[in-house]
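On clarity, I found the account of how folds are encoded harder to follow than it need be. Since the whole study asks how a given chain folds, the encoding of that fold should be made plain. For illustration, here is how one protein appears when written out as sequence plus structure tokens:
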Amino acid sequence: MPTVDTHDDVWIDDGGLLHHGRAWVALPDVEWRLMVPLVENMGELVRRDVLTAAGWPGQRVTDSALNVRIKKARQRLQPLGLQITTVRGRGYVLAPTA
């Protein structure tokens, strides 16, 4: 998977580390794949179906599987000053905390 470096100081490297400035967090494979479209579209809505396809390519998964992984990703990203906001029924937005 290529390095994503599309937003100022937030990027994901090839080893599955998400960086925000000088801080970083290691992400499990599914969360890493989920974060790619969120980082690429920082501050913009990413639809649930896009995230599901990114996280579990070629597989059908339940909404609750995505919800659980997003919840875990939120916990990992909080210390970095990043938050994932839910847009009910549509998707999620990744942005720096205020």
Remarks:
- The chain has a mean pLDDT of 91.
- Residues 4-96 form a domain with the Arc Repressor Mutant, subunit A fold (CATH 1.10.10.10).
- The first strand starts at residue 4 and ends at 7.
